[in-house]
Write a structure and sequence with these properties.
globular; alpha+beta; binds zinc ion; 18 strands; 8-stranded antiparallel β-sheet; Penicillin V Acylase, Chain A
Length: 440
Amino acid sequence: MPPQSCDTMVALGATTSNGQTIFAKNSDRPADECQPLVQRERQEHRPGAVTRTQFLTLPQASVTYRHIGSRPYWCWGYEHGFNEHQVVIGNEALHSKLPAASQPKLVGMEILRLGLERGRTASEAVAVMTSLISEYGQGLFANEAGVRTYDNSYIVADPHEAFVIETAGHEWVIKRVTGALGISNVYSVETDWSELSRGAEQFAAERGWWQESNERFNFADAYSAASRSEGSGAMRRVRSCTLLSQRRGEISARTMMAVLGDHGDGVVPDEPFMTAIRASTGICRHPDDTGAGGCTAASLVADLCADGSRLPVYWCSFYTPCLGLFLPLFSEGELPPLLTRGGATPSDDSPWWRFYRLNRAVMGAPDELASLVRQRWQPLQDELFATAYEVAGRGRQLVDAGQQSEAKELLTGYMAKNATSMMARVTALLDEVAEESVLA
Ligand SMILES: [Zn+2]
């Protein structure tokens, strides 16, 4: 079975340097599974309408909200995404004690998309997602489509609050986030839950996974099939929680990008950021030089805004974040079509496949080539930081003044210019790295 990894983090306003909620996600997937972006408009639906996920048909909501998702090219759902109401969600694969179900269920990434489509706040999205999980289930199930299925955990955030959801089949638990934390491929909600699915305790007790007593139910103890103190997921979770806790009060979007690009193995969780690339080690995942192993396919850092002073800024990158560029995106504008390109086979018009090639080239001699690539991105990344928040402020003013089409034009133009610039530079960089590789 291919490795399943991912990391999701959130820092509430009390722990960040700008006082706003900041969310982050690394989506780790098979090394050559393209993961472009997609934007879907707000839609109203007639009574009785249905929505078809890959395996199930569900009643449609009366309205689905505009959103942007990061989508494995074949998938109905997303690894992470954000909607017009600043609800942002990321998921993780978990390994529960439940055997594979024989009936089709929802895929974890589909539940994420349904949360974005139907939630105006984090708490509303959590209610939508948990009710779908109870009714339709998720987790490991047999299917002939070859879709890899697993139990899931999520962080669901908005500018004011955030929640962790962990699941096993049709059962789930919710924990309200205080401060800052990270989750990974390991159950983490123990007795500190704020809400539990109705059958969670009894279901576990009937299977001998939990002894009913006066003790508060421990979801992670009851349902986790894997060690919660050893293994890559446990190490990455300790690492992200430690890095965030050390920086409490000063966490910024840049801090989150550094955490997503970190290569510490978690053995010494409080060591400084580790930037030297080691395949299959760290929160930033690279395949080894044979292309085997999982890798980070896409990342998101969402810098939300609770006080109406600017629009939220969604920093998105393709492939491994430590060799990439985070582009500032705005859901109020039109996503550059360039960023939606890419499918099963490599194509030069897809930025995702360009970054894939760049990563493969660097992994031939990571010690020499990674620093070259990072040096080349730095000026553009700095420039984007210098302009994105100004654009976010102007965009907000235009929206508040009722000048929606001017706002859309500003944001669409800004994103398109940056996407084109990124594409030109990654292409030039591929040539430069190829030349350096020959010289090395
Ligand atoms: Zn990396």
